[in-house]
Amino acid sequence: MEIYTSLTAKPVNSYRPYWAKRFGTAPVLPMSRAEMDALGWDSCDIILVSGDAYIDHPSFGVALIGRLLEAQGFRVGIIAQPDWQSAEPFKVLGKPNLYFGVTAGNMDSMVNRYTADRKIRSDDAYTPNAEANKRPDRAVLVYSQRCKEAYSDVPLVIGSIEASLRRIAHYDYWSDKVRRSILIDSKADLLVYGNAERAIVELSHRIARGEAIHDIQDIRGTAFIRKQVPDDFVEVPSTRLDRPGVVEKHEDPYAMKMGKGDASCATDEKAGETAPTISLPLPLKAAKVPRDRQVIRMPSYEDVVNDPVMYAHASRVLHLEANPGNARALVQKHGNREVWLNPPPIPLTTKEMDYVYDLPYARMPHPAYKGANIPAWEMIRFSVNIMRGCFGGCTFCSITEHEGRIIQSRSEDSILREIEEIRDKVDGFTGVISDLGGPTANMYRLSCKSEDIEKNCRKLSCVYPGVCENLNTDHSALIQLYRKARSLRGVKKILIGSGLRYDLAVKSPEYVKELVQHHVGGYLKIAPEHSEENVLSKMMKPGMGAYDEFKRMFEKFSAEAGKKQYLIPYFIAAHPGTTDEDMLNLALWLKRNDFRLDQVQTFTPTPMAMATAMYHSGKNPLRKVTADSEPVPIPKTGTIRKLHKAFIRYHDPQNWPMLREALKKMGRADLIGNGKKHLVPAYQPAVLPKIVQSDGSRFQAKPMPKGFNQTKSFASPKKHTGGRHKH
Fold it and tell me: Domain 19-226 classified CATH 3.40.50.300?
């Protein structure tokens, strides 16, 4: 069954291969001249530079892009985690014939290196033996500079999640300021954003045919610098689309025309607006020009630096122009230069996804690492990525901004072949597949019921404030996949390790039953994130009613199977919109439900996320942003952030003094005492237990049996597939 998309594009597997295809397939892509010599290469056509160790597996972006380009006939070399103190390590493979491709790796380098408290992490999951400090801060900028020093005349292309989320002026949490587009600071010739297979394949073939990279300005999913807007484009000021001021509403000539049954895609002011508020009609000239000849004039870098309200407005407009079916180009002035963003890439079809994931990956780290332990590899070596994208739109998450809202799914046959390949080729396989998932466990093959509605929709989420009536929530394809996967010879167990979207799961009780009775290894992770409605509304997350319904189903089906199983909830401390009272209420909810969290995640503002716009501006970009619009309380100071984390870990004696003081100030001293109704005891142990405090990563929790006083850890590293990360 083919998954349609609202637009068409040249298939990534339909290009005539480059002449170097004659060299065949490399066992692993070379990282040294000796390996190049063994392959018979005198040079590389493309060299990819990465902040991660090179693991030849499709869950790692540099391997996926490298193998894809190899399949197109190009000779691809890898420079992984180079010493950035000089340009010499960037010359190790010689001068590339076509271009350098620079990536920070599967994670943003700043998120990878620093905790939510801006402290340097002690390890790096993407490095042999988890060694820390093997990549620089802002790795894309540093690597780009060294590539230019090594070979100044070689075109430079930047990509990966670090570049993708910094494609326009963005708030940078680590320096606490708005920084310029990474295109300006890296001096790159081109930026590819999102999952860039389609863009990078077209770009490579066009450069190979002799086109100058500065003349290639029509590829979707790319950004570049130009001096002025072309004459054949009409500018539409972003303030015409969503004016940051109090004005009367006028009809939008480009608003989606609703038919019967389409109301769920309209603005819902009461539930929380997630569609654009059009303030003024578009210029008459623009109304006569096709959307592909319109460009939205974003507030300039100078504007967003000086005015947080304009920053929030720019964030809102960018997110509203994210649907490949109706998005227009964006332009943002930086001084006398224009940063131009072409519309988002067209999603891959199922056949194209199969092509990408069926490439001949070695499914192992490069032999140069000599069997060193690489935690990120250990985490995913027995897992399979079945889809990409997420239509949840959680404001704190970077998946949607990077991978898009349209779900791109592999075929059942392709997934089953990969499981068999793991069974037959990957050392140490014991019969257990650790995950069949992706950004979300249960969005496989889910899409809009109408191609026309999907093409025109401008909502930020398909599941907030409720599940859209136009969304197909049929989980039967996923149920069938689970059944076929676990029936394969040599497969003992299929676990689901990706986060579950439980508000979708409850729409399919059959799926919940299948999942709970066959694919849970005792613990299942889900992400309520908070208990309080006003916080959840800033996250674009469902209320606790959906959690309660899923919990009821989970316990019922577990009991029917004769299994004792637990839900593992995730929560975020100090998210924008959170007050001390909200965190207290969450702590009380945790206590009522017998949850004790080992460690917790404190909100980290990542570039381009809508929650980051809230954090920086104090405004809510989920609604029209004005100087007088809804203020959002922001837990910014270190003291407040620590207190909010302490509320989630109310059971930790090290947090009791802080909580007692806070409860007294809040007028809730009644919660201090030694009874069951109290949150923290009145006494303090003479000797505190040694407890490792949170380093800002995501961890798991479990409900505690009656009378059990020790908190057992069920922490596990984050899974990263195809360059994604969720904060």
Answer: no
The pLDDT tens digits of the residues spanning 35-79 come to 999 999 999 999 999 999 999 999 999 999 999 999 999 999 999
Q: Domain segments of the chain: what residues?
A: 19-226, 230-255+265-339, 350-363+373-652+691-703
pLDDT in tens, 232-291: 999 999 988 776 643 333 333 333 333 333 434 543 333 334 333 444 455 556 667 888
- Is 528 within 8 Å of 570 (Cβ atoms)? yes
Look up residue 244 and give its amino acid. Answer: P
The one-letter code for the residue type at 264 is: S
Whether this model's pTM surpasses 0.85: yes
359-362-365 Cα angle (round to 5): 130
Q: What contacts 506, CB < 8 A, 6 or more positions away?
A: 512, 546, 549, 550, 553
User: Regarding beta strands 222-226 and 190-192, do their DSSP bridges make them parallel or antiparallel, or are they unpaired?
Assistant: antiparallel
The per-residue pLDDT for 239 is 87
C-beta separation of 194 from 343 below 8 A: no
Average pLDDT, the chain: 89
> 3-class secondary structure for 146-165?
HHHHHCCCCCEEECHHHHHC
- Nearest-Å Rg of the Cα atoms of the chain is 25
Fold annotation for 350-363+373-652+691-703: pyruvate-formate lyase- activating enzyme (3.80.30)
Number of CB atoms found within 10 A of residue 669's CB? 12
